[in-house]
Amino acid sequence: MSTLKVVLLTDSDSLNQNIPLPYKYYGKKLWETVQNIVTELKYPCEIVELDKLDFQEHESVNKFLNADIVLMDVTNQDRRPTFMYHKGNRESVDCMDDIVLIQASNVENDSAIQDLK
């Protein structure tokens, strides 16, 4: 069985619990949960910060495009278009295995889920 390369694409600030966010969600909790799952499955998993990907940081772009699976946390509605742009970049090079995650605890994100389908 070959090893899958998993990447969590996240907004940089969502990993820092000390930064007040416009939404009640912490990417750190998501990362810990994902890390536990992939560790149990013995898959390597890395974080790629959206800001570094936006500025075409070479290592981040390579991790993102070479990952077998990318998990994207699109809870922050202000950054959602940027996440979807990068998702489109992966699709344009036939990387179709992405998992889009969103916290839907309010009406705003509930309607956003319909937009993402």
Strand order of the largest sheet: 2-1-3-4
CATH class: Alpha Beta
- Give the tally of structural domains: 1
Q: Stretches where pLDDT falls below 50 for ≥5 residues?
A: none
* CA gyration radius, whole angstroms: 14 Å
What is the H-and-E element order? Answer: EHEHHEHEH
Straight-line distance between termini = 32 Å
Task: Using the 3D structure, state the CATH architecture.
Answer: 3-Layer(aba) Sandwich
Structural class: alpha/beta
Q: Which percent band covers the strand fraction?
A: 15-25%
General description of the model:
This protein is α/β, with parallel strands linked by helices. It has helices at 27-41, 50-54, 58-66, 80-92, 107-116, and strands at residues 6-10, 45-49, 69-73, 98-101. The chain has one domain (6-116): Rossmann fold, CATH 3.40.50. The protein contains five helices and four strands, in the order E-H-E-H-H-E-H-E-H. Strands 2-1-3-4 form a four-stranded parallel sheet, with helices on both faces. It starts with 5 loop residues before the first strand and ends with a helix.
Task: List key phrases describing it.
117 residues, Rossmann fold, 4-stranded parallel sheet, alpha/beta, 5 helices
